[in-house]
Amino acid sequence: MLPVSEIFYSLQGEGLRAGRPSIFLRLGGCNLRCQGFGVVREVDGKRYVGCDTMQAVYVEPFGKLWRGYDNSLELIQDMEATLPHGKSYDIVLTGGEPTLHYSDSVLIEVLEYFQQKGRSITIETNATVVIDFEAFPVYKACTFAMAVKLSNSGEPESKRINDKAISRIFTQAGERFFKFVLDAEHLKELSQEITALTSRYDAPVYCMALGHDAQTLAKHDKAVFSFCAANGYRYSERAHIRVWGDRPKV
Length: 250
Ligand code: SF4
Known about the structure:
- There is one protein chain.
- By secondary structure, this protein is of the alpha/beta class.
- It has a single domain (2-178), classed as Alpha-Beta Barrel (TIM Barrel).
- It has helices spanning 59-62, 72-80, 105-116, 157-160, 163-172, 187-200, 214-231, 239-244; strands spanning 2-11, 21-27, 39-43, 46-50, 67-69, 90-94, 121-125, 143-146, 175-182, 205-209, 234-235.
- The strands form two sheets. It has a nine-stranded mixed sheet with strand order 5-1-2-6-7-8-9-10-11. Strands 3-4 form a two-stranded antiparallel sheet.
- Helix 2 (72-80) packs across helix 3 (105-116).
- The relative contact order is 0.16.
- The mean pLDDT is 96.
- The site of iron/sulfur cluster has 14 residues, from loops.
């Protein structure tokens, strides 16, 4: 069963393909927790801390809201049903960490279907899972948005950096870029971490402000913007958060 947390249509809010109409397929489950991002939610009197998509991370208490798919046609129908128009659109595979399920046959069939229709597919990943591109060549034509986690995620380096996984994406994927979430207070340390990574892997770097709502984004965005300008990185807005906050399905 492929665990699906959300299916929705929106505009891509960040990164290389920002602004493009897209169907989002958000899979459930993640191998990290990223409590350093500090988003807090209370469910049934219990407090959960993590990232702005924790509804796709924690099996308890959110897993009961996920839907398991064992049929790709059904999933394709549900995805296409979200489209409000007959014009062009992208597919965004996100999570949680969607590559945990990279070999799932339902997922492969869905990706192949949309690829055959000429849709651009972006995979939003923390780049910690070593993907077998030879066994599953559908991934070779995908764009990988590598949101490699830095120390501000609160995760130990041994869990958040997997050079084998990153280097596999670099050598096999059609297109890839880094995107990093930065906070104003730790720019110096984070800058060193980004330099260390990007000296090993040459790809466009997008930096975005930390925040799960417009108010928090506004605390960090000017510093991150200036940091990008000073270092030759690209600044990415997080339009979905700026406009909608941490509402699901946007
Ligand atoms: S890797 Fe991404 S989805 Fe998983 S906990 Fe961290 S920020 Fe959230």
